[in-house]
């Protein structure tokens, strides 16, 4: 076969199956483009990791996978359009709408990843950066994600030829029906929204309610339920609407913890009581683990059936439960030492029994004036 004949054969083969070579070149170019994009983003991420800001890291990390998939979506859709004239199949009519939906989905994926990365970075402690509390970051990120998804759904409907005004009108009428059918769900949703806005508590704090049997550490604040881990390690799921009608106490935000104890001395130690009270008061005022700027009271406040009672009222500097009890223990030991040093003793409950013949004589036996 001559050279001219071989050239003519290749030309006839190309004219017959030209789309095959074109598709092959497009797929090959897509593979190389995908590899190049991954390589460049990896190098760029390594360079940006050296900077102090977290916005660029969040952006690159969010874009890596969606951008790689975008290359494949564009490449394969172009290849499908090249095949369409020779394939003569109605399936290829959906290539353009599918490409639009895929691009919209990839944009949503990128934005959601970026929002999540920023929310995660905001709650992490960094040098020169005050971390945002988890509750606020979670609430804002959820609202942004919902906004992105709703906007993407409307754009996708518009790209498919649906009337956005009709969809919105249907949503307005349907929203009324849904509101009546799901009023409890909406009450929980707005209850969760109020928790995010008012922030009476955040994740990790200890809360309790005097109105309900609710006490424990907040583990998760959702749009419908708040999860609380009780002190016996059981999960407690509280609908968010409940927090709109009950009082909530947040002991995690207390500034001090209180020590309030009443001690009783024997009746015969009455002469020692003023010195004991004065020394206990001085000890508490000089105690390094107590907050002297808060109310501090040590006073004799009553006579019991068999005791002279004085009380200790003061506040610790620490609010940690375990540390508080350790401080309280040391304070009470010091009070007992002061009482013992003055030769006094704590009173013991006593009961005196009178005979019938003693009752009428005011405690004396009749016929015995010495009794």
Protein architecture, described:
The chain is α+β, with helices and mostly antiparallel strands. It contains 10 helices and 7 strands. Helix 2 (18-48) packs antiparallel against helix 3. It is elongated and about 125 Å long. 12% of the residues are buried.
Count of helix runs: 10
Taking the alpha carbons of the first and last residues, their distance comes to 150 Å
Oligomer: single chain
Structural class: alpha+beta
Parts with pLDDT < 50 across at least 5 consecutive residues: 363-371
Largest sheet: 4 strands, antiparallel
**What percentage of amino acids are in beta strands?**
5-15%
Strands across the major sheet, in which order? 1-2-3-4
Q: Any descriptors?
A:
single chain; 371 residues; alpha+beta; 4-stranded antiparallel β-sheet; 3-stranded antiparallel β-sheet; 7 strands; 55% helix; 13% strand; disordered C terminus
Brief write-up:
With 371 residues, this protein is an alpha+beta fold. The protein has helices at 3-16, 18-48, 55-87, 95-122, 134-159, 164-181, 183-198, 273-286, 321-341, 356-359; strands at 206-209, 214-221, 225-229, 235-239, 257-265, 297-303, 308-316.
